[in-house]
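Weekend entry, working from home. Most of the wet-lab plans are on hold until the incubator is repaired, so I used the time to fold the two sequences that have been sitting in the queue since the last round of cloning. Logging both here for the record. First:
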Amino acid sequence: MSENSSSTKINWTKVLWGGTVLTLLAIISLPTLIIFIPGMLPTSVARICDRTKQKYATLCVGGLNICGVFPFIMKLWSDNHSIAAATNTISDLFALLVMYSAASFGWLIFLAVPPVVSTFLDVLAQRRVNILRGKQENTVENWGPEVAAEIDGIDADVTVSPE
């Protein structure tokens, strides 16, 4: 079986459990689902778009998306847990703006943090190379040029990348 076909394979156990949970929630707490499903749409899009095994985009977007949806679910639970209150919340442009803006911050974190971390690791690796070159020069001073005979072909300006 090819790698591409195994990544698109449907896990029917997860689908069955997810359907069961959604059905139970619809029976028990429909107003919460009325807010939760449209509010968490950016997380669903991130899950579909994220093809990596670790699902980092889904985690970043989902974590902040739930932070944007949670205050409105708490307001629904504490005030009036009814379908009318849920539809009023979902039809409120400010509520949708808060929910989707929180998800957009998740996308921003997902897109901005890895290059910053990569640059930081590159600087640390280059610093380590410079420290080792200094120790190498001290060793050559103390023991003579014979100890460095095998590394004469290495360029002194080599940059090291953590990738």
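Second, folded right after the first finished:
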Amino acid sequence: MGAKSPSLRLDFGDSSPENSLMHSAAAAVKPDFSGWATKYGLKCSDGRTILNGAFEHQDGDRVPMVWQHGHNSPENVLGHAILEHRKQGTYCYGYFNETAQGKNAKTLVQHQDINALSIFANQL
């Protein structure tokens, strides 16, 4: 989560298609939020355009969710996200952890103080 690109608005409703991860038997725990991690073909604020299928190989992957792209400290880990490849882009389901930082971030999302995320697509 943070200010770097690509940033897209989160979807707090269930806009997932019937064949999504959230409609599978494996989805035992409801995510704290869901939304587009990236959509294909849009120019990001860093000038990059994510091409169709760029993250298709990560369909179903569980990735860390960190504050402001801070991969340098475990204290920045707020939880995890499950990625889902869709024809329009990569959708994610976010789960906050029980750390003080995770609980704070969850509250910020619930109150819509934070309404976007960034995937920090580097080294493309």
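Plan for Monday: verify the second prediction. Confidence is low (pLDDT under 50) at residues 1-10.
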